[in-house]
C-alpha cells in the first residue's frame, strides 16, 4: 500500500516528555544546550582529525565517521523535539513520521555496524601490532565504512517498507517525543504480525550480529593486555580502547531496551530513549569521551588551536 492510502489518519500527535509548560521551557533550554554541545563537539572532532596529519590513521578515520553519524543521529529527532517543546500543537504527518523513522533506522543501524568495525580495528592494533598496517589498509577501511552504511540502509528499508502498509484509523497519539517504528504498532488497526516478526528478527540479527564481534574482539584484547608484563604497557594498551568500550555500553544497553521492550510510553522507556545515541545524550558524550580520554586527540587539538592562533596573528 502506498503512503497516500493511509486515508483515515493523516497525522499523529506526539505527547513529548511533559505536558507542563514550565517543564517544557526548562527541557527546551536543557536540550538546546546539549544539542549545541553535540554539534560543536562532533564538528570539532571532524575538523581536528582532518586538519592534523598525526590522526590520519584507521582508528581516527572510523572515529570521524562516528562523529558524522552522531551529528546525523542527533539531528534526526532533536530539532523537531525542540520545536515541539515550544508549540501547543505537536503534530507530525504520517509521511513525515515514516520518514523520521527511516532516518532513525539508517543512522542508528549504521552506527551499530561502525562500532563493530572499530572494535575489530582495536583488536588488530593491540593483538597484531606488527600486522596492523596490512590488516587495516586504506581500501579495507573504506569498504568497511561503506558496508556499514549499506547494511544500515538495507535494515531500514525492510522495516519502513513494511510500515508503509500499516493502516491507522483510530488512535493517533504517540506516547513519545519522536516517531519510531515500535511506537507506531499500537496505533495500527491492520495486522502487524509480520512487522513485529521482522522488527524483532532484524533487531536481534543486527544487534547481536554487531555486538558479538565486539565481545569477541574485546575478549582477545583483554587476554592480550593481561599477558603484557609491564603495568605501564597494560595501561597504555587499555587506554586505546576504553573510550570505544564506553561508547559501546551506552549505545547497546539503551538500544536493546528501546527496541525489545514493549512500547508503553512509560517514563522509564522515555529515559532510555533520551539516553539512546540517536537522540540527545550519547552523541554529546562521544566527542567528550574521545577527547578527554585520548592524549593524541588532546595533543592534536592543541596543535590545531596553535596553528589557528598563529594564522590570526599573521
Automatic annotation (TrEMBL):
Keywords: Cell membrane, G-protein coupled receptor, Membrane, Olfaction, Receptor, Sensory transduction, Transducer, Transmembrane, Transmembrane helix. GO terms for cellular component: plasma membrane. The keyword Membrane applies. The keyword DNA-binding does not apply. It holds the Pfam family 7tm_4. The chain crosses the membrane at residues 26-48, 60-78, 98-120, 140-162, 196-226, 238-261, 273-292. It is found in: Cell membrane. One of its GO terms (molecular function) is olfactory receptor activity. It is a multi-pass membrane protein. Residues 41-290 form the G-protein coupled receptors family 1 profile domain. Putative odorant or sperm cell receptor. PANTHER family: OLFACTORY RECEPTOR. Belongs to the G-protein coupled receptor 1 family. This is Olfactory receptor. The lineage of its organism: Eukaryota, Metazoa, Chordata, Craniata, Vertebrata.
